[in-house]
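Protein modeling request. Please complete all fields; requests missing the sequence field cannot be processed.
Requester role: graduate student
Desired output: 3D structure, token encoding
Chains: 1
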Amino acid sequence: MKAVIQRVTRASVTVGGKKIASIDTGLLIFVGIVKEDTIEDIKWLTNKIVNLRIFGDENNVMNKSLISVDGGDAIIVSQFTLHANTKKGNRPSYIKAAKPDIAMPLYEQFVEQFETALGKTVGTGEFGADMKVDLLNDGPVTIIIDTKNKES
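Delivered output (152 residues):
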């Protein structure tokens, strides 16, 4: 699994002109899934993200995590393009991205695991839909994590 995590002061997802998710302070998380991903990847990535100390404390030092910041929320959006291969030519290849029959259940498991770890419901995109994602990146803080390249 690959995730792009953005600390935001606001974010929303719209599908077909209807806003389906919206948050203020928190994280907007784009997740790309490959067919080799497992429940262990989901657990590791969830733990890593909810405990990532990227929110400011009383001295404006990044010492707080999503679970420790007041009012911290999240939106999780599936994004197969995170696994784009751009080595040859100018048209990206998405052959590494998992097909929907594999990716969708793993995405749903990731959302469930994340909600359990965070202790509240998170917003989501709509799997496979044409989504409009609006955000105000705070910092800017953007972090990329790949479960195939784990760091403690």
